[in-house]
């Protein structure tokens, strides 16, 4: 395994015609933790990841992996693995054969195929054609492709999509273990609950801009939390807290104590011999905070707009908003990076067709010269018999 690397975005902007999909994005992703990349659909997450992987060129700014552009990385399959959105595999090939294609192209030992399929729980499905796979199994196969070269950096777009509850639980534990091994793990999602249960650090993007970066625990300022406490002797409890310079506010559900945690409040009650009926720490729900961040109601100091008020929209603002998915795909198609066998990008991307198959059309396309080399085992056997 290669070491985990620092991922760094410096002023990345990406425009598709008059549409700004990513706007001066700046962030750092450290190795050794799972970093969640959170934002509503259409916020610019996938475009940002595609810039990092060299699939589209930024209009301005840089995105680096270990201080290098993706194109500068030697043996990329052994350094960076990625799965972008829904997987698109050839339905007529087996899981093992898909991995064989990438292994041969990148010079990875064929023995690594069985190891990787075992890692993602697809050993029993190794010989099955992918056309019969569920979406969850395809997600696991995409992860297998990303892990084939045992890379130190993993970039995953919506990795839990299509998984059943058991599969989601497995994915959470698997990603956390990869981070504990020292890898850099960046996973995007539009689901806050999933990020909460998987990630240690968090990036939040909205309208192509970074609106939060930091630990998940720091998303809400401590001053927004309060301790709610109640007792059958509410008056006695209020007096005891007042003697300890802990002023209270009275609610129907109990007393509100600001700037003191549950341990401090409970200790005061214990010293005064006052029984408590409830004691809890409350603050704004993370979902509420997230919605406030992406709507612009809340501005966090770590966000791009923290040091200045929200910019007034220019007359063409309507055309510089986040690109709809279809418009973005159409606009960026001409800029998609061409990849040769010596610098194979380990990306499973729904916007790219199978790199080893002609696109399916009404009129069959002629086979590429090397096509038969990567056919399933039956064709491999046939080739051997001819020899």
TrEMBL record:
The keyword Nucleotidyltransferase does not apply. Residues 301-387 are annotated as: Disordered. Residues 306-324 have a biased composition (Low complexity). Residues 376-387 have a biased composition (Acidic residues). Residues 7-232 form the ABC transporter domain. InterPro entries: AAA+_ATPase, ABC_transporter-like_ATP-bd, ABC_transporter-like_CS, P-loop_NTPase. Gene3D superfamilies: P-loop containing nucleotide triphosphate hydrolases. Keywords: ATP-binding, Nucleotide-binding, Transport. Residues 340-354 have a biased composition (Basic and acidic residues). It comes from the Bacteria. Belongs to the ABC transporter superfamily. This is ABC-type multidrug transport system ATPase subunit.
């Amino acid at each position: 395994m290669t070491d985990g690397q620092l991922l760094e975005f410096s002023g990345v902007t990406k425009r598709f015609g008059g549409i700004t999909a990513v706007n001066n994005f700046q962030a750092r992703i450290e190795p050794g933790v799972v970093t969640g990349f959170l934002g509503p659909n259409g916020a610019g997450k996938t475009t940002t990841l595609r810039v990092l992987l060299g699939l589209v060129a930024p209009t301005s700014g840089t995105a680096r992996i270990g201080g290098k552009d993706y194109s500068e990385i030697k043996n990329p399959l052994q350094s960076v693995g990625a799965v972008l959105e829904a997987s698109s595999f050839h339905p007529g090939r087996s899981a093992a054969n898909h991995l064989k294609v990438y292994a041969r192209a990148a010079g990875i030992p064929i023995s690594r195929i069985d190891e990787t399929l075992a890692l993602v729980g697809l050993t029993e499905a190794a010989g099955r054609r992918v056309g019969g796979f569920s979406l969850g199994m395809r997600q696991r196969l995409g992860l297998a492709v990303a892990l084939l070269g045992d890379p130190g950096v993993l970039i995953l777009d919506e990795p839990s999509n299509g998984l059943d509850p058991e599969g989601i639980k497995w994915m959470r534990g698997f990603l956390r273990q990869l981070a504990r091994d020292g890898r850099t793990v960046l996973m995007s999602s539009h689901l806050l609950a999933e990020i909460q249960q998987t990630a240690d650090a968090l990036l939040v993007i909205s309208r192509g801009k970074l609106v939060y970066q930091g630990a998940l625990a720091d998303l809400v300022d401590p001053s927004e939390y309060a301790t709610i406490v109640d007792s059958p002797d509410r008056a006695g409890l209020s007096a005891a807290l007042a003697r300890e310079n802990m002023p209270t506010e009275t609610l129907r559900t109990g007393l509100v104590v600001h700037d003191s945690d549950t341990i401090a409040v409970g200790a005061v009650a214990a010293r005064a011999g006052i029984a408590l009926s409830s004691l809890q720490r409350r603050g704004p729900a993370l979902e509420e905070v997230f919605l406030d961040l992406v709507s612009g109601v809340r501005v966090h100091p770590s966000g791009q707009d923290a040091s200045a008020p929200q910019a007034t929209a220019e007359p063409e603002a309507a055309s510089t908003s986040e690109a709809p998915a279809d418009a973005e795909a159409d606009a960026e198609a001409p800029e998609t990076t061409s990849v040769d066998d010596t610098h194979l990008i380990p990306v499973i991307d729904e916007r790219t067709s199978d790199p080893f198959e002609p696109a399916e059309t009404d009129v069959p396309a002629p086979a590429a010269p090397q096509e038969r080399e990567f056919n399933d085992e039956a064709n491999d056997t046939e080739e051997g018999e001819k020899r």
